[in-house]
Specification:
Largest sheet of chain B: 8 strands, antiparallel
Order of helices and strands of chain A: EHEHEHEHEH
Number of helices of chain B: 6
CATH class of chain B: Alpha Beta
Radius of gyration of chain A: 13 Å
Number of domains of chain B: 1
Largest sheet of chain A: 5 strands, parallel
CATH architecture of chain A: 3-Layer(aba) Sandwich
Order of helices and strands of chain B: HEEHEEHHEEHEEH
Largest interface: A-B, 20 and 22 residues
CATH topology of chain B: Chemotaxis protein chec
Oligomer: heterodimer
Helix content of chain A: 40-55%
Strand content of chain B: 25-35%
Shape of chain A: globular
Number of strands of chain B: 8
CATH superfamily of chain B: CheC-like
Number of strands of chain A: 5
Number of domains of chain A: 1
Distance between the termini of chain A: 11 Å
Radius of gyration of chain B: 17 Å
CATH superfamily of chain A: Response regulator
């Protein structure tokens, strides 16, 4: 069974980078969002198992999405994939419930390792 | 007609390469300042040589311009300008926690600029399979009068400026600066080819 996946990033290229790094059998069950508001709408109306989330986005950013997930009591494994690699930011997203912080540009082996650590692969 | 006219995909690809470079530059700045830097999405615009002076002179109270040359392979070279506003000078000094006699304001700006420029360009270059070396950064004196002179005295002829608007917010402080990359036409063509190569992988 492939899990339901949501990729949220304002960059089309970044979304494609995540998509092509996913296990082949997962790729049919992937939705995408281009901003935080879109992501929260999808999360509210669908059961999403895994969210790959960018931080720096116009409007509702990644932090806003993490706060929204908490507030709405949504159960979801969130992996933040961001260029904002400051240690304080990494700690902040984990405190807000993200499973892991993955630095951009995402690499498949790193993504797989992170998924394996949480028994999602 | 702009020589750097990009397709939507090329623009998106370039923006993402710049986001990654900015993220690492901010991380370096945060480590240097021992604080957290709040990062916004940087906006990019290209300005042709004719309009650059006009664009820069529209900014009021330009305090300082720090200029640093960079060189890579395959004709990728240019000059990076970091442009600061006057009202930010006190904030930058506060931020650095420098005592007035420790380092002059000029040296503080040169320090910050060099961190931002070299980290940004190193990361950018690595993503396009290139590698940069640098000249020493220099502060342009009397920028109000001398900027156009300096822009005309570049050791290469540049055809386009890529202007990256950076806004850093550091806890209680915030300062803005513009990073302007002056690049010659050969470098522009090369960058476009690299963008296409990256896009073709998808």
């Amino acid at each position: 069974m492939s899990p339901s996946v949501l990729i949220c990033d304002d960059s089309n290229m970044a979304r494609k980078q995540v998509l092509r790094s996913l296990p082949e059998q997962w790729k049919d069950n992937v939705q995408t969002a281009t901003n935080g508001a879109e992501a929260l709408t999808i999360l509210r109306n669908n059961e999403i198992e895994i969210l790959f989330l960018d931080l720096t986005m116009p409007g509702i950013d990644g932090i806003g999405v993490l706060q929204g997930i908490k507030k709405l009591n949504i159960t979801c494994n969130v992996f933040v994939i961001s260029a904002d690699i400051q240690p304080e930011m990494q700690a902040k997203v984990k405190a807000l419930g993200a499973k892991e912080f993955i630095r951009k540009p995402v690499k498949q082996d790193v993504l797989f390792n992170n998924l394996q650590q949480h028994n999602l692969l | 007609m702009n020589e750097f006219h990009l397709t939507e995909d090329q623009q998106d690809c370039l923006q993402e390469l710049i986001n990654i470079a900015m993220g690492q530059a901010s991380d370096q700045l945060a480590r240097y300042l021992n604080t957290f830097v709040y990062l916004k999405v940087p906006s990019i615009e290209s300005v042709d040589a004719k309009n650059l002076m006009e664009t820069l002179s529209q900014q009021k109270n330009t305090l300082a311009v720090i200029s640093q040359g960079f060189f890579g392979y395959e004709g990728i070279r240019g000059e990076a300008l970091l442009v600061y506003q006057e009202e930010d000078s006190g904030r930058i000094a506060d931020l650095l926690g420098y005592e007035p006699d420790e380092l002059s304001q000029d040296e503080q700006l040169i320090d910050i600029s060099s961190i931002l420029t070299t980290t940004f360009l190193n990361v950018f270059a690595r993503q396009i399979d290139n590698q940069m070396s640098y000249n020493a950064p220099k502060l342009l004196p009397n920028v109000k009068d001398k900027l156009s002179e300096h822009l005309q005295q570049m050791p290469f002829s540049w055809d386009l400026a890529l202007k990256v608007n950076i806004n850093y917010q550091v806890t209680d402080y915030s300062f803005n600066c513009n990073m302007v990359l002056l690049i010659p036409e050969t470098a522009i063509i090369n960058i476009k080819n690299v963008l296409d190569r990256i896009l073709a992988e998808f």
